[in-house]
Known about the structure:
4 helices; mainly alpha; about 75% helix; about 0% strand
Amino acid sequence: xxxxxxxxxxxxxxxxxxxxxxxxxxxxxxxxxxxxxxxxxxxxxxxxxxxxxxxxxxxxxxxxxxxxxxxxxxxxxxx
Length: 79
């Protein structure tokens, strides 16, 4: 039977990990809490990105410079 370790010990062990190991642990914990990723989600986001890229290439949408977007956002937040 596996005995649970005290949280303080687990925290110490985590602090000893490299950044890459902490990232891997975080992904495992996230999946444990959130459930496994839906494989269709990645495919849907890729299809959406391709669609948007094609709209840009075809000139269907107007590109707005990031500094203009941030200025507008900042102005709207100050209201």
